[in-house]
Amino acid sequence: MAFMKMTSPHATRAGDTGDVMKQVILACVPGLIALSYFFGPGSLINVILASATAIACEAGVLKLRNRPIDFFLKDYSAVVTGVLLGLALPPYCPWWVVVVGTACAIILAKHLYGGMGYNPFNPAMVGYVILLISFPVEMTQWAVPRTMLAEGQDLLGPLSALQQIFLGGAIDAYTGATPLDVFKHNDSQLVQHLYASEPIFSTARWAGAGWEWVNLGFLLGGAYLLYRKIFTWHTPVSMLVTLFLLSVVFYDGGSSHSGGSPLLHLLSGATMLGAFFIATDPVSSAVSTKGRLFYGAGIGILVYVIRVWGNYPDAVAFAVLLMNFAAPFIDYYTLPRTYGHDKARRATEKED
Amino acid sequence: MRKIWSIPGGIHPEENKSQSLQLPLGEVALPSELIFPLSQHIGAPAKPIVTVGERVLAGQKIADAKGMISAAVHASTSGTVTAIEDRTLPHPSGLSGPCIVLAADGKDEFAAFEACEDYLSLDKAVLVQKIREAGIAGMGGAGFPTAVKLSPRANQPIDTLIINGTECEPYITADDILMQTQAEDIIKGTLLLAHILSQPGRIVIGIEDNKPLAIAAITQAAEGTPVEVVSFPTKYPSGGEKQLIQILTGKEVPSGALPSSIGIVLQNVGTTVAAYEAVRFGKPLIERITTVVGEALATQRNIRVRLGTPIHHVLAEHGFAEKKAMRLIVGGPMMGYALEQDDVPVVKTTNCILAPTKKEMPPPRPTQACIRCGMCAEACPASLLPQQMYWYAAAEEYDRLEAQNIMDCIECGACSYVCPSNIPLVQYYRAAKGTMRQMAIDKEKSDRSRKRFEFRQERIAKAEAEKEAKRLARKKAAELAKQKQEADKAAGVQPSGHTAKADIVATAMASAKAKQATPEEQKAKLERAVTSAEGRLEKLQQRHSDADGDMKERLAAQIKQAELKLQEAKDKLAHFTPVPTAITTVAADAPAATADPNDPVAVAIARAQAKMTMAPDEKLQANIVSLTGRLAKAEEKLAAAKAENSDKVDALQTGVDKLKEKIASAEQELAELTPSAPTATPAPEQDAAAAAIERAKAKAAAQANLSPEDKLRDQLTSINGRLEKARIKLEQAQAENTDTVAALQLGLDKMLAKQDKLRDELRALNPNAPELTDQPATAAEVAPQPAPTVDAATAAIEKAKAKADALASMSPEDKLRDQIASLETRLDKAKQRLAKAEAEDDPNLDAFKAGVEKTEAKLQQTKQQLVTSNS
């Protein structure tokens, strides 16, 4: 009798790429809860809207490309892109912002480059940056946290949120500057005074009302992913350590020209989301552990530089995209030392 | 306990080791037919030493190790050899290969084994020989001949002996049960191996900590011995040779090298026991312990099984439910290979037969895109980047793969195991590695031919330039001579060749008389030739049957030649009719024999003379050319040997090295010669040309004075000298065991044949000539035989006279024409010979080619001369 001919190994670990992606989505939950608690249901609606758009775009493009739709949708990669972009966008931003951003992410940044596994840039961040450059007004209006609401004012309910998103309207009362915005525009007050006078800091514990908890939520999710060995510690730790060190060096004791405290940098803006969910995207990052240390450090440096000396209050998207450019280059020079070799080689040495 | 190092990466697959440990070690019934593949090990396949129909006993050697890296094969029960044929091999390829098939007679009679109590007092070489004779090869899976591993090079002292009891593959428990049941033997075997390796400083048995019973048994047995037992955390692939070395010593085996290069020898526990039993009891490797496991079997256990037992027999004995199984694996689930057929036998390396159900090992899930998650890199024990290697392998970027060190991949399968996208990574690497190996071989080949071509172009260009220079010199010399002649004529001086002419006539007469052999003598000569050819053929055939490999082919070619010669000789004898007139014609032509292209001896002498008159740099160049040709051939052979992993690699390597040395020294000499050449040539060239003319004249005169007998004597003396030299060379070559032995032998044989021929000729002229013994000729005056046919002799004399007259009165132009004609015949002849050599792939092909080229050049030159002298 003839048996099936197969090559070794015959045993494999259970699970597939879809399971990995589901873990990532699951790990976003603490951050999403924090966002929803402090800023209302805007982010959740963003996430749902973006995920639905992502799935629709993915299915459409797969059909155009004559690829099996079902098979690829099951890897949940499109959903991850949608979720991450939804988390990054301002709550209550118009629906078309979310749709345009997600469509750009899936169609432009992912499928035009060959689809799953072939995209050189992080799709969610490409979508984010396109939106940021194209619709700066919509993209810079962030909701106020619940701690800053006026007496008697309440967070938007789901219905009014949906109304806001799909029908538009003035919600000025509900929008405000983010902690990094506030810090960016300060050039006269000492940090100490700024913290006391600005409600976004005065109603917070360390680094901005609501934001600090959102960041801690993403840190928790990231820790879970590390525990599940979905990715290694190298990129996030390297990025956070670099950011921390730079903020220590340029803190200058809290003058009006201070770059901001280490805590502000670590727990404000998109730091933790970026460190654990964006920078760790394996497709577009460096591959070796050594390479990932450089890659993470590069992101940390760029985030700090753009935040403090650049034109944008936050910079995770730009930093990640710039380092995506550098990833193949890093890969060439950071091969690990193989067993039985005295030193590591360079991937390009054969071409010299 | 000593420090334990950890290896990077690794995985923890489900161990599945308990299933096969529930029952004690069992046995299976004797199968009716056993199959013994000749290649159960790494290296050259064994060579059968039994014939079909022969009865053999259990333990009897049925195939012998062929070459250094090979292992003998023994029958594992008594019975009759029913076939030596190709059968499906237990190999990942599923290909067929030569096997000895044995029909068991059920008596299970054993051959007598030679036990040895006091084996530690034996010489190490004897012990290694015993292990080699027992056909022992690594039983952990790779099957490397154990005797080879136990004979490390003298410059690689072994300081650590590691016995591998790791058994890190899931499911397999063969080594575990061996350690539990034969701990004493393992320790004895370990001490034996340590003894053979001159007592290395550290002797250690490494066992994974998931085998507590084995660890306890071995620890107990090792008490009071220098053997250290080390257990370490379970992790796949700790049992890999390189990985275990890293765990136990912290050292890494350098890429592309063997463990012995860092003073380590590693043997599997099963191999250790087999070696001990071979030395102590004289028992060859005819059985092994194999794990038979998998949910598709009713009984899962370890068995002691005779090598050669078909796997379907083993499965049948264990209640194999064929319908439940989808794949059948030999080895473990990580590195084992799937069988397509279950009619292959258990061999020396079969440590496990795994018959999982579909549920146990489901078919692979569909492959998804690589997201470069890096889990594979985390799992890789060799610190490679599997995701990058996959990328480059899929894109067939082999240079990049090389830089990624793909050749250091041990194909453990850890990357494939962890891959969430279910990419069969190892399969990509295997394919890429195979392609890269082939590419390396191809590249080497093309590089070689390119070099050869370039060298040839260079050589031709150089030769052209030299010819041109010589032609000019000769032209000048010819003009000078012409002027001189005209001046002489003008002065009324008689041609000085007058007396010489008379001499030529006289010798022609003498030789014509001398050459008159009787028909009886000629017949006798032919008969002798036939006998000698027969003798030679017989000798060659004898050697042919003794030789093997390359030598055999070479000898086969020689035999063919010898047969042809014999046929020729027989034909001649058959057609032989004593025709006196014919003889006289031959005799009459004799004086011209020096230039006769039909006479091989003369041609050879001419060639030799040409060689002698060659400028030293020319000679060197010719030498280098021939050496390079030989080197190329030797290198080709070496590459082939390497590819086949032949045991001749070392011998061939030394041969190649030696050739390279020779070429280097020749080139050096040439380099030393050439710079001085251009400055030195112009002035002496004319003198040299003049001198050469003088010399040639003198020689012609001298030769004309020689009787044919003397000429033959001269030739014989020269050939004796050459023969002596060739003998010395051959002896040297034999002593050094270089690969030129065969070629030298061939040359020597040829010379002997020539010597025979010369002697025959001489004998025909003068049976009493002292050269007919082996003594070199001294001056011996032997009176020519009286001529039996005087008329013929007179005719010959007339002819010779006419020829001499013609020669004397020839103008230089006529001489040149004559020369051209002769050269043209020679060229034709040489071309024919070259064609024949090419057809037969003669080792002297290059020499023939050079000869043709040279003759062509000469012809060209002479024609040129003729043109210039005409104008």
UniProtKB/TrEMBL annotation, chain A:
Protein name per Swiss-Prot or TrEMBL: Ion-translocating oxidoreductase complex subunit D
Q: Please name the gene that encodes this protein.
A: rsxD
Query: In the UniProt record, which is one GO cellular component term?
Result: plasma membrane
Q: Which UniProt keywords apply?
A: Cell inner membrane, Cell membrane, Electron transport, Flavoprotein, FMN, Membrane, Phosphoprotein, Translocase, Transmembrane, Transmembrane helix, Transport
Assembly and partners are described as: The complex is composed of six subunits: RnfA, RnfB, RnfC, RnfD, RnfE and RnfG.
Signal recorded as keyword: no
Species: Pseudomaricurvus hydrocarbonicus
One Pfam family cited in the UniProt record for this chain = NQR2_RnfD_RnfE
Per its database record, what is this protein's job?
A: Part of a membrane-bound complex that couples electron transfer with translocation of ions across the membrane.
Q: Which InterPro entries match?
A: NqrB/RnfD, RnfD_bac
What is the annotated localization of this protein? Cell inner membrane
- Identify the EC number(s): 7.-.-.-
The similarity comment for this entry is:
Belongs to the NqrB/RnfD family.
Chief localization class? membrane
Upper lineage is:
Bacteria, Pseudomonadati, Pseudomonadota, Gammaproteobacteria, Cellvibrionales
Q: Which residues cross the membrane?
A: 71-89, 233-251, 263-280, 292-309, 315-335
Q: Name one GO biological process term.
A: transmembrane transport
Q: Has UniProt tagged this entry with the keyword Ligase?
A: no
Which HAMAP family does the record match to this protein? RsxD_RnfD
Give the top-rank taxon of the lineage listed in the UniProt record for this protein: Bacteria
Q: Which residues carry this modification: FMN phosphoryl threonine?
A: T178
TrEMBL record, chain B:
| Positions with biased composition (Basic and acidic residues) | 476-489
Spell out the Polar residues composition-biased ranges.
858-871
Q: What does the record list as GO biological process?
A: electron transport chain
Enzyme Commission number(s): 7.-.-.-
| Entry GO MF terms | 4 iron, 4 sulfur cluster binding; electron transfer activity; metal ion binding
InterPro entries with a match to the protein in the record: 4Fe4S_Fe-S-bd, 4Fe4S_Fe_S_CS, Ion_transpt_RnfC/RsxC, Nuo51_FMN-bd, Nuo51_FMN-bd_sf, RnfC_N, Soluble_ligand-bd
Gene Ontology CC entries for this record: plasma membrane
Q: How is the cofactor bound?
A: Binds 2 [4Fe-4S] clusters per subunit.
Q: In which residues is [4Fe-4S] cluster 2 bound?
A: C380, C409, C412, C415
User: Where in this chain does the record put each 4Fe-4S ferredoxin-type domain?
Assistant: 361-390, 399-429
The UniProt entry lists membrane topology as:
Peripheral membrane protein
Q: Among its keywords, does the record have Coiled coil?
A: yes
Query: Which keywords appear in this protein's UniProt record, sorted alphabetically?
Result: 4Fe-4S, Cell inner membrane, Cell membrane, Coiled coil, Electron transport, Iron, Iron-sulfur, Membrane, Metal-binding, Repeat, Translocase, Transport
Pfam family of this protein, just one? SLBB
Q: Region Disordered: list its residue ranges.
A: 476-496, 834-871
SUPFAM superfamilies recorded for this chain? alpha-helical ferredoxin, Nqo1 FMN-binding domain-like
Location in the cell reads: Cell inner membrane
> Where is this protein primarily located?
membrane
Similarity comment: family membership: Belongs to the 4Fe4S bacterial-type ferredoxin family. RnfC subfamily.
| Its biological purpose | Part of a membrane-bound complex that couples electron transfer with translocation of ions across the membrane.
User: How is this protein organized at the quaternary level?
Assistant: The complex is composed of six subunits: RnfA, RnfB, RnfC, RnfD, RnfE and RnfG.
Q: Under what name is this protein listed? A: Ion-translocating oxidoreductase complex subunit C
Question: Which organism does this record belong to?
Answer: Pseudomaricurvus hydrocarbonicus
